[in-house]
Amino acid sequence: MKFPPFAYERPTRLDEACEMLAVEGARALAGGQSLLPLMALRLARPATLVDLARVSELTGLGVDDGGNRRLDMGAMTTHAQIEADSSIRARFPVLAKIVSHIAHPAIRHRGTVGGSIAHADPAAEIPAACIALDAEVLISSVKGTRSEPVESLVAGPYQTTLRDGEIVTRVIFPLRAERRAGMDEVALRAGDFALAGAVCVLDRAGRDDQRGTVTFFGVEPRPRRAEIDLERVRTSADDRTYWVELASRLDEVIEDVHGDPSFRRHLAAVTARRAFASASTQQVGDFV
Amino acid sequence: MRIALDLNGAQVEADVEPSVSLADLLRTKLGALSVHLGCEQGVCGACAVLVDGRTVRSCLMLAVQGDGRSVTTAEGVPRRRRGEWAAIESAFVELNAFQCGFCTSGMVVALEELLSREAVTRSEVAAQLSGQICRCTGYAPIVEAFERALASSGRLCDGDET
Fold this sequence. Notes:
The complex is a heterodimer.
Chain A: E1 7-9, H1 14-21, E2 26-29, H2 35-40, E3 48-51, E4 61-64, E5 70-74, H3 79-84, H4 86-91, H5 93-99, H6 105-108, H7 113-119, H8 125-132, E6 136-141, E7 144-149, H9 150-153, E8 154-156, E9 159-160, E10 167-174, E11 179-186, E12 196-205, E13 208-217, E14 224-227, H10 230-235, H11 240-248, H12 261-280
Parallel strand pairs in A: 1-3, 2-3
Antiparallel strand pairs in A: 4-5, 5-10, 6-7, 6-10, 8-9, 11-12, 12-13, 13-14
Chain B: E1 2-7, E2 10-15, H1 22-29, E3 48-51, E4 54-57, E5 70-72, H2 77-81, H3 85-94, H4 104-115, E6 120-121, H5 122-130, H6 139-152, E7 156-157
Parallel strand pairs in B: 1-5, 6-7
Antiparallel strand pairs in B: 1-2, 3-4, 3-5
Helix pairs in contact in B: 3-6, 4-6
């Protein structure tokens, strides 16, 4: 289980990194917590690893309450940084909570938000949180920069719309005063990949929630965001029926050694209901 | 590539190929045999070391990524804990907090990260240990030894994780 041989580059500026990544066979190394195991297992064999750890443009994290009203984080922000950041804990508690489900503390110290998005594991928490919270990413390459919502960036299992030589540089979450969110996840053991997980987002207008969505992860080949029929949830005597019905519409449910599709659909309904309950109990204010 | 790092308080240098993991560098060139290689794919936690004071899987980090960093292996923990170490060691011995011993050095490194905090809750102990596999499945005494080590220095506190 040793790594296959590769060349190693360690740029300090973004333009340098982009030039190195424009070369055939080069691949970006972020935290390495998914890419390095894939290399150990010979599922990935890049000719060159471009280590992004020292590229200053990919770090930094801040909530902008002013004109832009957003949370902006560098792609090399680690899960542990998100978990510990006081402004995220205050303004985006759902993000701090969801990263606590990612593997174990030692993995979270190195795993990064940009790496997780680019890797696009169907069971990963970060891409699902990004889709649920309408995050977009900034992307750079030698050809220039562009932005794309994570919703369209994640194309399938381990597939994104990132083109050769492109890297995610920043992740941007809009800050919406009338938004509440909650999440839930079921895994066999703490830190294992999710068997099913859900992120619920409720957007209020006036006194009532006007729009609600639930984004499932670990259930299908890519995270899926579904609209919640808030009227039905409010008026049904037993809302469990509604969540089971919502989960029954998931038509590409993963089947593996841990369970057949009906079991995963069941877990999807359970996690969606709990995520909704968690979002519903939040105070409206600047909380997501 | 020539790299330099601080290993358990001593400045060391090494020539490494990029494909060498930090775990292999520590074991084969730098004599830190407490770094145990179990799965070599980030699952088991036996190779845990501290990098700049934070636990990492040394099998999921390249040696070249350790350039300029400060690395602590289980060998370096007694020196960091000085006066406290005897009590920690006896907690492990008295409670039988290891069976075959393969996971123990990773456990000691995981404990050191908790000991570097001011206050630690029981649920944080559980979360920390979730990443460290004991294939003998002797978790209960290990949790107890962690809690005793933390309690004897006044760090164990009640209350849930926030």
